[in-house]
Amino acid sequence: MTSRTMEFLVPQTPEQRERRIAALERALHDPDGRTEIDSGRLAEPHRYLDSPLTTPSVLPTGPGAAPGVLCPDAACVVDGEPTRLRRLFGTGMVVLVAAARHVPAAASAADVPCTVYALDEIDGTGAIRAALDGGPDGAFVVRPDGHIAAALPSSAPPALRDALHRACGRPTP
Fold first, then answer.
1. Are residues 152 and 102 in contact, defined by beta-carbon separation less than 8 angstroms?
2. What is the pTM (predicted TM-score) of this model?
3. 99/104 Cα distance (integer angstroms)
4. Alpha-carbon span 47 to 18, nearest angstrom
5. Alpha carbons 31 and 25: distance in angstroms, whole number
6. Residue 151: strand, helix, or coil
7. Rounded to whole angstroms, how far apart are CA atoms 74 and 152?
8. Among candidates 108, 155, 114, 115, which has minimal Cα distance to 135?
9. Neighbours of 86 (CB within 10 A)
């Protein structure tokens, strides 16, 4: 996989360069041609589906939003500044709630340091909400590495607190 990716990203022979140019030109006009472009992903991200730090899901989440997988990425706006959802991860736990009205309850439930974002405030296009598909009251706990630790049907304090504790390896109260 790595060799194929490097051949596409940094072609070393005339044949490799021709293949790369042909794939890029085809992708401009043919959506099917985009599958030929090697994005540079050297490996698939690890999935922590059976980790003791992952809360099993009770939501009918798709494969892109299941606990244990890397959180989908999309454009968002935080404090008036455009950014990417994945840029919000990395320094601590993140809780994504469906609506701003859920932020106070989620923040009060969190006795683990975390940042709470309301999707109806940061997701102007709806792309994040569609990818996560947590419903009108759903909440997602995202680890610093960007993996979803829990997909909850609501941001109810007991369930959210338990999910945060589990994600940090703490016993639940």
1. no
2. 0.72
3. 11
4. 35
5. 11
6. strand
7. 20
8. 155
9. 15
pLDDT for position 122:
97
Question: Which single residue is written with the structure tokens 């309301």?
Answer: 118
CA–CA distance, 144 with 149 (Å, rounded to integer): 10
Which pLDDT band, with edges at 50, 70 and 90, does 64 fall under?
low
- Listed residue (118, 108, 121) closest to 138, CA to CA: 118
For residues 40 and 27, what is the distance between their CA atoms, to the nearest angstrom? 16
Per the listing, tokens 């299941």 go with 66
Of 42, 43, 11, 41, the residue nearest 24 (C-alpha): 11
Structure tokens of 145?
A: 């590495």
Q: List pLDDT tens digits, range 106-152.
A: 888 767 889 999 999 999 999 999 999 888 888 999 999 999 999 99
> Which is it for strands 148-152 and 81-84: parallel, antiparallel or unpaired?
unpaired
- The predicted pLDDT at position 163 comes to 92
Alpha helices in 10-123 (DSSP H): 14-29, 103-109, 119-122
Quote the pLDDT of residue 96: 95
Which uninterrupted H or E stretch holds 13? none
The reported pLDDT for the residue numbered 173 is 60
**Tokens at residue 133, please?**
């598909």
Strand ranges (E), 30-78? 75-78
Quote the tokens at residue 173.
Answer: 């109260």
